[in-house]
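User: Run a structure prediction on this.
Assistant: Running it now.
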Amino acid sequence: MLVISGNINSSRPGIDEMIEKRDQAMLIQMVRSSLSQGAEVISVNCGTRLGTEVDDIEWMVRSIMQEFEVPMCIDSPNVEAQKAGLSHIRTPRPIMDSITADPIRMKEFLPLAQRYQARVVALTMDEKGIPGSARDKLVMVQQMKEPLKAYGIPPEDVYLDPLLFPLGTDWNQGKEALEAIALFKREVPEYKVSIGLDNISHGLPKRELLSGTFLAMAVAVGLDGAFIVLDEHANSLLVALDALMGEDPYCKRYIQSYRQGLLDI
């Protein structure tokens, strides 16, 4: 499973101030921590800073690229912010988050994905909003198929997002999201599936319990990637998931992590 760090997001406490002050030391430490906690891709999001988002994205990408050779994701619906970020990423196969089935959005974003050979997150919605059922979300996927093909985006570089909402506002959300993931894997297996994990537990206590449990359930029905706000417990969960899903031959990584004192629950 592809692990994308969602820690660097201006909506999270302290991040807006870090960006405003151009605190490069704090930014670098956040990336270093995320990598040590299991991140394979670093995502940057300045969505709350609409007036300065393009400059902010450029600053963050430049700063990270000076210190790390790490895959990156630009998380923004702003095509100018995507351009600013992608143009400074030196590592191959960046991720654009995200396109939708909105024809205008696809016309703006897909040429960039083609130019930078980027992977794309595809939200299963269009300009009219978010469909209510898994089947209706699958219709959104069908509408994106031809444009993705026309711009030469390989199916394996597309991550469908069924769009998670908090359990606190819709207590059926977990079940419905799992149904959507399973449906996508069955009906359009050429594509991958990813989620913004921490949305599921937003506003509820002991968020790590809900998020971690849901992640295990989602991986079991075919999840390929997740945006995760990583903490000191995340790597233990990810190591255990790999072992349970047959991605860790003879549980070597799990045992090694135990011997190194890295398994923390």
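The CA atoms of residues 10 and 107 lie 27 Å apart.
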